[in-house]
């Protein structure tokens, strides 16, 4: 009898499991079908109309409802206005996702996400991808909490604009203006409550956003700031990779961006002749789908990429310093996750940054994960992040 009950239990459990798997597959199939239907018109979305940058930061230029959306959510591609480090008006793109469930009184809390490095070319924008949500770490959990989640592409990807890779102020502005854009979509029902969350390059962007929020976007109530393996100190980051393939890849993106943004930064003052030849090609390649090609092109330049140490050579030393976070405080609590197996953002550097922020009187939680590397840290940090949010920004 007990054995028969056991068989019935197992059979019932398997049937339920298969039903759940079937439901998930069906939902994903619908979303993927929606993504496919959108592809023929996606390029037109990223074309800017005349006068696109004319208007207040955070106002909407274009809004495109998406057919392929996460379960129980609605979403839009957005084109919105923002500003550069020089204060020039520019345009950025991204995606906005909200749950179908009714919003709480006062509207939804916004989570503005900063994505990790994807490249520097226009088509490296996450919102341009077949699945525009794939790089938003923790999206499902954030939607289940009722948040409105907005994810910028930064400036210079997706649509025309100056290169902004690791340009802290421009990245921070794009993160804050994405949150403003979320509030400008009436159907999103977004409030002025704001959480910032980012990984790697996006960690730098959200840290700059937090440091600038009280001056640049004072209308927001900044509740919490979280970053996984942030590119917080560019002197440390570049110094750790001067003679490896990561330094060649990061440097190809970053030095090019700095040379386009800062008149005093000339590529031929820091890159070798061999590097100058290959950097344009590397900047055309998006990181994840072309990592093998980037390494193949860049590997011969390891040890022969720069003419001098950019962390000690002007104007590069000052530019790396200016684009490092930690020069000013902010009132919101800070969560810093770091994988102890990370070989890109060195764990000691993030722990040192956490100690620096705490020394300024900030409320800092350092969350190391022993088995996480650079690629997995944001995903593996989600349980700790959610528990921390329950404490510092309860719903």
TrEMBL record:
Name of this chain's protein: Secretory lipase
SUPFAM superfamilies documented for this protein: alpha/beta-Hydrolases
Pfam families in the record: LIP
Classification via PANTHER family: LIPASE 5 (PTHR34853:SF1), PTHR34853
Gene Ontology terms describing biological process: lipid catabolic process
GO MF annotation list: triacylglycerol lipase activity
Source organism per UniProt: Microbacterium pygmaeum
Domain of life assignment: Bacteria
């Amino acid at each position: 009898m007990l054995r028969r009950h056991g068989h019935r239990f197992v059979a019932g459990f398997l049937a339920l499991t298969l039903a759940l798997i079937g439901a998930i597959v069906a939902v994903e199939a619908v979303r993927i079908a929606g993504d496919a239907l959108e592809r023929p018109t996606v390029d037109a979305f990223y074309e800017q109309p005349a006068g696109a940058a004319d208007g207040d930061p955070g106002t909407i230029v274009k809004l495109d409802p998406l057919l392929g959306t996460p379960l129980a959510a609605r979403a839009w591609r957005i084109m919105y206005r923002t500003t550069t480090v020089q204060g020039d008006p520019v345009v950025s793109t991204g995606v906005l996702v909200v749950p179908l469930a009714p919003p709480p009184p006062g509207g939804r809390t916004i989570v503005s996400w900063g994505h990790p490095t994807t490249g520097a070319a226009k088509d490296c924008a996450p919102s341009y991808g077949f699945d525009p949500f794939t790089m938003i770490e923790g999206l499902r959990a954030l939607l289940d909490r009722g948040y409105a989640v907005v994810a910028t592409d930064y400036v210079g990807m997706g649509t025309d604009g100056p290169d902004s890779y690791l340009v802290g102020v421009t990245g921070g502005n794009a993160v804050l203006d994405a949150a403003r854009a979320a509030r400008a979509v009436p159907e999103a029902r977004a409030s002025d409550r704001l959480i910032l969350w980012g990984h790697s390059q996006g960690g730098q962007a959200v840290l700059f956003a937090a440091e600038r929020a009280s001056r640049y976007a004072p209308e927001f109530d900044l509740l919490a700031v979280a970053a996984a393996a942030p590119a917080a100190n560019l002197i440390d980051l570049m110094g750790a990779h001067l003679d490896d393939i990561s330094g060649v890849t990061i440097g190809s993106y970053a030095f090019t961006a700095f040379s386009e943004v800062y008149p005093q930064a000339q590529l031929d003052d820091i890159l070798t002749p061999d590097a100058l030849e290959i950097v344009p090609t590397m900047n055309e390649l998006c990181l994840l789908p072309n990592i093998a090609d980037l390494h193949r092109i860049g590997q011969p330049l390891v040890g022969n990429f720069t003419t001098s140490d950019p962390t000690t050579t002007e104007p590069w030393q000052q530019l790396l310093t200016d684009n490092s976070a930690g020069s000013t405080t902010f009132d919101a609590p800070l969560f810093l996750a770091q994988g102890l197996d990370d070989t890109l953002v060195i764990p000691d550097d993030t722990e040192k940054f956490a100690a620096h922020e705490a020394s300024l009187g900030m409320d800092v939680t350092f969350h190391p994960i022993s088995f996480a590397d650079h690629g997995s840290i944001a995903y593996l940090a989600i349980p700790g992040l959610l528990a921390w949010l329950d404490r510092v920004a309860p719903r």
